[in-house]
Structure formats: structure tokens, C-alpha cells
Design goal:
Layout lengths: L13 H11 L3 H28 L6 H12 L4 E3 H8 L3 H13 L3 E5 L7 E5 L1 H19 L6 H17 L4
Antiparallel strand pairs: 1-3, 2-3
Helix pairs in contact: 1-2, 2-6, 3-6, 4-5
Length: 171
């Protein structure tokens, strides 16, 4: 394929073909589940690639963008590291890594908490606020507002994924 040439999809749905193979082998009870999981994983790859290509020119990853947005949505523009991890549902090491990178880019600051000496507060800088807003505008325009699903399908997808997450104990 030449550089810059549009990528063409397969002439058939490989996940549906795998589902049919699953059923033919006598695993029919699990065929739809396999197809759903595989479709979800492939959809994740597609959406993640779009998100990354949108954020890459801004010098931020989606994980760091999530931290910036969480801080932007907070009342004071600052949160303890522990709260960031809890709200984003990620391991403390991941929060530390993201905050380290954001701090080195002057997008956040870290200060000891006045209320709890063990806690560290992470706060947005004006540059961090500006980047969060710029990244959100880009994501809204290039990804979130253009998923390729009609509104009713998008709401159905959201409802189904929320049910899946809730059933898994995500919240």
C-alpha cells in the first residue's frame, strides 16, 4: 500500500467468520460471546488509534488527558493523587507516571496537602487548563462527535456497555 493511500477493509467480516467457525465446532453457546468480545476489542483498537492520532500533535496521551480533565472538572482545579487514581480507576503507579509527565511539561504542579501531610495535591497550571480545553475541542471534533453511529445506536451502545461494566463491579 502506498504511503498516504486509504486503508481498505476486508471484503468480509472476519469476526462473523470466526463466529460461524465457533458454531460449526460445537461451541455455539459461546459463539456470540466470542464475537462480542472480539468485536469490542477491535472497536477499542479503532477508537484508541483515532484518539491517539488526535492527541499526538498536542503532545499528550489519553491517560494524561484524563488527568487534566479530572482536574479541570474539580471545583478547585486540584485533587489528591489518591483521589485521581480512584476516580480514574487506575493503579497509583499509573497516576504517578502520568503526573510526573504532566509536571515535567508544566501542565500541573504538585504540592503537599495543607489538611493531610501524607497527601500530595495535583493542580492544573494555566497551560494545563489551556491544553485540556484544546484537546477536548479536537477530540469532540475528530472522535467523540464522529463515532459513525446514529444517536439512537450510540445511546444503546452506551447503555449496553454501562450494564457490562456495572455487572463486572466497575461501579
Amino acid at each position: 500500500m502506498a504511503a498516504g493511500a486509504p486503508r481498505r477493509g476486508l471484503p468480509f467480516d472476519p469476526i462473523e467468520a470466526a463466529r460461524a467457525q465457533w458454531a460449526e465446532r460445537g461451541w455455539g453457546d459461546a459463539a456470540d460471546g466470542m464475537a462480542a468480545v472480539t468485536s469490542l476489542m477491535r472497536a477499542h483498537q479503532i477508537v484508541l488509534a483515532r484518539v491517539e492520532s488526535t492527541l499526538r500533535p498536542l503532545g499528550v496521551t489519553f491517560a494524561r488527558y484524563e488527568v487534566l480533565m479530572l482536574l479541570l472538572f474539580s471545583r478547585r482545579g486540584a485533587l489528591p493523587m489518591k483521589v485521581i487514581g480512584s476516580r480514574l480507576q487506575v493503579h497509583p503507579t499509573s497516576v504517578t507516571n502520568a503526573v510526573d509527565r504532566l509536571e515535567s511539561a508544566a501542565l500541573v504542579t504538585r504540592t503537599p496537602s495543607a489538611e493531610d501531610r501524607r497527601a500530595v495535591l495535583v493542580a492544573l497550571t494555566p497551560e494545563g487548563r489551556a491544553l485540556a480545553e484544546k484537546a477536548t475541542a479536537a477530540l469532540n471534533d475528530e472522535v467523540f462527535g464522529r463515532l459513525g453511529l446514529p444517536g439512537a445506536d450510540l445511546r444503546t451502545l452506551l447503555r449496553v456497555l454501562t450494564t457490562l461494566r456495572s455487572g463486572a463491579g466497575d461501579f
